[in-house]
Inverse folding.
């Protein structure tokens, strides 16, 4: 198969040609060939479609940022590997999930948020609130002034008081 | 922010008391601690207090929560550890900070495997970066020297007084603690040239206010009681009194005419001045200011903020004062006329103010939503119109129509809501005020009846006549009508003050790239360039270039090659001082660029950049932008040399053809040729061509290069190019790879080296070979 992936050197990584294992706290990629295995090295996993498809199109990058290849679907890998990758992805894409919004106060250039997240209560400040909210249907991603992101998985499941706090910024 | 312990780069060894029990549990004494850090995320990504404690031998990780605890009537902070790990210092190496999507982690290699030392949110990046440096030193040498001076200063992001965030951490002006009166005074100082005119405006307003307070006195009660009543002092002197009434009316009309004439004169001048001040403040800032902000916001700032500030001084303050004086005066007169009636009249004022405030608050929300939607509609609209080629090419008309309809509908709904609310709420308040009016009628009526039926009951002084009641009622309406205005003014004043503080935010912003106060001037620039260990990053931690060192002799032509995104354009921008290097220095003829005057630098260096920009105007104006005093002959010559002449003469209006804002009427290569003409006209000592001929065919490129060489007269030229044939005349080549200079030498040398350049070269010649053309 002489696909566009081969031409561009973007290799699909399958269970046949690669193996993933844990080394310390980090996953490591091994290349399989007829005469055994070769250690490629520690890698970073990046989602190509971080919001649309969390477990598909996973691109693996070397520590220096060189592309090693991509995994089409997480479910194609072995159970052990899936567990390793899922843990790594969860950490890499961690955003505190907002459960409740106590107060959003707009003052001068910033809005000051007081929220409860699944990771604990939190206060943060957002610069230019309108622009700092990404709308993905009912999901909302908030980016604060330091660049931290927070996730509101479904706007409609927030309680009424919380919704009222951010109502102004939504359309 | 969240941590009870704040990392101090100069004193990283100070242990907070609440941590001591946890430390002694690990057998660590307070004095042993070399450096201490507290971050906010534990390994399960929960917000905890996570300490990293470094001693000479060990690195301790203790995660836990801080609880408040009451003991002996004092509230104590107690740290409850829940997870701990430790490493031997000597095992640790290669500490690295890794950026994740919305957080970071610090990792290290321990016995050949990499482990996570701690996790933290981006807010702690600065702390960890410094701590990492210390840790690395401790692991290697057993001790470290803390940073000192400028480097150890952490950026203060929050106002220490009120905890609000500074809009700009570089110039710490807290928007709240910065007194509003101070902001107003500062603006007033800017406008001090208008002092007398403003005072005059105020005077006319006060006069007209005073006249309007006096007028009802004559026209209502006075007329009934003193003129028409036989007992009155002016009984029968109708003409005289009518005269007085007419005169006051006329006078009041005259004064208000003068007032509006004055305002319209000042308005134009003042808005013009303010716009100039705002624009020049923006203009002097460095490039990074513009790339980090949305230009749309800046545009409104220049346009509408000037209007808002003008309006504050010329309209809001004067009319507020006058209305205030008027209301107070009216209440005073009413009180003198009849205290009980006055009480009845003002009874409804406080509740009305409360109601009006509430309404305006809600209106504010509705308005800002409406504003947001209209902004969203117009940005969508400009997006669609700007991308009309793409829309047509991909037949997206239907989709765009849908997108537009949706936004349009949203805006209409917001409009409707706002108007509906206004239509419902304001009559409500009006009703309240009507009630106040009726109360005055009622109380007044009762008083008159009482007086008629039982004069003894009401003292002689409390006599209320029909006339008095009529006068009274006109004053009542005088205090009710400005009420709406007052509340509205408060919220509008807040807006104006916001505009003023935005102005000062920009005026006080320090450009990143500043000219030295006593810059060096160069008599004659030769054009020698030297980079010395130069490094640069746009964002902290994301190095684009590092350890760049090379020298270009004056008059030489140097080619720069490298992968896309390697940092070639960045390198060029550093020479122009659009940005300053974050590390190392650049020298022009042996003089550090930072010491050189802007004028000398910019006069002698020109760039034809990758993305050309042409202003709306004629071709002539655009080329002349480099040197407005250039003669037509010079412009002509420059365009001939750049090859632009050829296409310009195909246009009907020749050099005076107007080119539109979107440059829609010129091709990519044509635009590039104009940019080159611009640079040639400037005749700089150093010319940088950043992919300046990439959009042209090879033949045109060659001709342009020949004319450039002919014109160069000992000019240093840096050519950035992907197409290696563009660089065939270069004296030397520099290959940028891996953020630094990977190879340098003459083309022949580099080919012999068989490195990166060789691979590139082979690839390009092979591509040519396949179609039967070999380059020699
Ligand atoms: N204003 C900016 N802010 C942040 N990063 C930037 C900015 N400008 C450029 N970069 C990044 O810096 C790196 C170098 O960019 P640069 O434009 O210098 O590359 P280049 O070598 O000129 O590439 P090309 O050959 O495509 O023109 C790129 O990774 C780019 O994404
Ligand atoms: Mg470039």
């Amino acid at each position: 198969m002489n696909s566009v992936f081969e031409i561009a050197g973007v290799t699909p990584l399958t269970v046949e040609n690669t193996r993933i294992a844990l080394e310390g706290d980090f996953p490591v990629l091994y290349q399989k060939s007829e005469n055994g295995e070769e250690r490629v090295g520690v890698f970073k996993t990046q989602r190509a479609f971080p919001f649309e498809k969390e477990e598909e199109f996973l691109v693996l990058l070397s520590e220096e940022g060189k592309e090693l290849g991509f995994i089409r679907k997480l479910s194609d890998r072995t159970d052990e590997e899936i567990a390793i990758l899922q843990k790594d992805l969860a950490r890499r894409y961690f955003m505190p999930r907002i459960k409740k919004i106590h107060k959003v106060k707009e003052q001068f250039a910033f809005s000051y948020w007081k929220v409860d997240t699944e990771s604990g209560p939190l206060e943060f400040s957002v610069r230019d609130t309108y622009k700092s909210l990404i709308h993905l249907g009912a999901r909302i991603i908030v980016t604060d002034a330091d660049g931290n992101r927070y996730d509101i998985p479904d706007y409609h499941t927030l309680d009424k008081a919380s919704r009222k706090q951010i109502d102004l910024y939504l359309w | 922010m969240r941590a009870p312990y704040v990392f101090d780069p100069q004193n990283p060894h100070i242990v907070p008391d609440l941590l001591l029990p946890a430390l002694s549990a690990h057998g660590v004494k307070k004095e042993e601690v070399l450096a201490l850090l507290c971050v906010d995320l534990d390994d399960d990504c929960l917000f905890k207090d996570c300490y990293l404690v470094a001693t000479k031998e060990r690195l301790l990780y203790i995660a836990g929560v801080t609880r408040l605890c009451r003991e002996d009537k004092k509230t104590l902070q107690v740290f409850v550890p829940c997870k701990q790990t430790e490493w031997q210092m000597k095992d640790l190496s290669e500490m690295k900070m890794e950026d994740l999507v919305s957080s970071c982690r610090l990792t290290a290699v321990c016995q050949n495997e990499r482990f996570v030392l701690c996790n933290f949110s981006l807010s702690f990046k600065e702390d960890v970066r410094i701590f990492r440096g210390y840790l690395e030193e401790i692991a290697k040498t057993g001790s470290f020297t803390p940073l000192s001076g400028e480097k150890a200063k952490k950026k203060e992001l929050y106002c220490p007084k009120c905890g609000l965030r500074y809009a700009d951490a570089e110039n710490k002006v807290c928007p709240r603690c910065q007194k509003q009166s101070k902001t107003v005074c500062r603006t007033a100082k800017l406008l001090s040239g208008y002092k007398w005119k403003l005072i005059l405006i105020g005077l006319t307003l006060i006069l007209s206010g005073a006249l309007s307070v006096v007028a009802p006195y004559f026209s209502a009660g006075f007329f009934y009681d003193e003129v028409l009543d036989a007992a009155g002092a002016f009984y029968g002197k109708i003409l005289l009194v009518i005269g007085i009434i007419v005169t006051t009316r006329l006078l009041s009309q005259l004064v208000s005419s003068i007032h509006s004439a004055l305002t319209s004169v000042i308005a134009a001048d003042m808005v013009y001045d303010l716009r100039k001040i705002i624009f020049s403040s923006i203009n002097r800032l460095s490039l990074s200011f513009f790339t980090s902000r949305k230009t749309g916001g800046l545009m409104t700032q220049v346009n509408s903020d000037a209007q808002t500030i003008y309006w504050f001084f010329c309209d809001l303050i004067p009319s507020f004062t006058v209305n205030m004086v008027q209301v107070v005066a009216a209440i005073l007169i009413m009180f003198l006329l009849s205290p009980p009636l006055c009480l009845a009249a003002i009874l409804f004022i406080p509740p009305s103010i409360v109601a009006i405030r509430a309404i305006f608050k809600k209106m504010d929300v509705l308005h800002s939503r409406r504003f947001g939607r209209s902004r969203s509609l117009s940005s969508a609209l400009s997006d669609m119109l700007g991308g009309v080629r793409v829309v047509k090419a991909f037949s997206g008309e239907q989709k765009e129509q849908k997108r537009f309809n949706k936004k349009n509908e949203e805006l209409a709904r917001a409009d409707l809501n706002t108007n509906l609310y206004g239509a419902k709420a304001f009559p409500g308040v009006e009703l309240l005020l009507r009630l106040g009016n009726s109360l005055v009628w009622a109380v007044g009526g009762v008083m008159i009846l009482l007086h008629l039926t039982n004069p003894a009951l009401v003292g002689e002084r409390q006599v209320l006549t029909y006339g008095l009641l009529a006068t009274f009622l006109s004053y009542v309406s005088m205090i009710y009508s400005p009420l709406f205005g007052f509340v509205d003014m408060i919220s509008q004043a807040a807006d104006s003050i916001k505009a003023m503080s935005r102005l000062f935010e920009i005026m006080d912003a320090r450009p990143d790239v500043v000219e030295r106060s006593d810059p060096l001037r160069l008599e004659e620039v030769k054009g020698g360039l030297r980079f010395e260990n130069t490094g640069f990053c746009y964002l902290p931690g994301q190095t684009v270039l590092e350890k760049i060192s090379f020298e270009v002799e004056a008059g030489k032509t140097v080619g720069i090659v490298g992968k896309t995104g390697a940092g070639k354009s960045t390198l060029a921008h550093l020479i122009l001082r659009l940005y300053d290097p974050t590390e190392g220095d650049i020298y022009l003829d042996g003089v550090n660029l930072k010491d050189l005057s802007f004028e000398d630098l910019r006069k002698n260096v020109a760039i034809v950049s990758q993305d050309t920009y042409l202003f709306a105007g004629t071709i002539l104006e655009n080329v002349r932008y480099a040197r407005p005093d250039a003669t037509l002959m010079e412009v002509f010559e420059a365009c001939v040399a750049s090859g632009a002449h050829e296409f310009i003469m195909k246009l009907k209006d020749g050099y005076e053809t107007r080119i539109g804002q979107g440059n829609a009427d010129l091709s990519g290569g044509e635009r590039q040729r104009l940019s080159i003409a611009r640079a040639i006209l400037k005749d700089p000592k150093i010319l940088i061509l950043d992919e300046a001929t990439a959009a042209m065919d090879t033949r045109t490129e060659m001709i342009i290069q020949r004319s450039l060489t002919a014109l160069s007269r000992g000019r240093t030229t840096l050519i950035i190019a992907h197409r290696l044939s563009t660089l065939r005349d270069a004296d030397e080549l520099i290959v940028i790879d891996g953020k630094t200079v990977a190879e340098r030498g003459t083309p022949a040398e580099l080919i012999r080296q068989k490195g990166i350049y060789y691979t590139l070269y082979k690839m390009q010649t092979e591509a040519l070979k396949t179609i039967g053309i070999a380059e020699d």
